[in-house]
Amino acid sequence: MLVGGVAALAFARSASGGLVSFTMVNGDGGGDPFNTVAFSVTNLSGPGVALESWTMTVGDTQFLYDFLYLGREQFTGGDGTQTALLTQGEHDNDNGAGPDAFAYAFTNFGPGVRFAGQWDIDFDSGAFNVDARTVLFNNGAAPNARATFVFSDGSTAEYTFPDLPVQDSYSLTIPGPGGAAVLALAFAGRRRRGGR
Angle 40-165-19 (CA atoms, 0-180°, nearest 5)? Predict the structure, then answer.
């Protein structure tokens, strides 16, 4: 369905309770497009519901999260007491080795607060020029990435990426109306038809 130039797709499953928006865009870490991914997570939950943790798998396990950029991590919209602790994965160690998932634990990540950062995905072999869109999703028979968010009211929101069109940015709300995730794909440039 196309709404105002944005495609809105409903899919996935999640438990009710907390609500987040999640965005991904091409990072500026070098290499081809989406070799690194800049992300943001905003807590859209109701009053008093804090986001406590976020875990994200890589999808295709022939790849790994090489590192997350510590210098890119920042909160906006909070009172300055927010913290993010990387409990799985590593910061700024560009060594071609890392886990198939990363995880953050948060404090005081209340409604309206936004957390942003950037990650780097590489081949398990250490080769680095990877398009994350063919690792997190659009990766053939390999599993797609899965994001899990846990909230202070005991609720969780889970999202497994489907195969998605190749775009310059991705924005989704988890869970969306009726408990499904809603994804808005921002179309950059002109639509191509017939290979033109």
Answer: 35
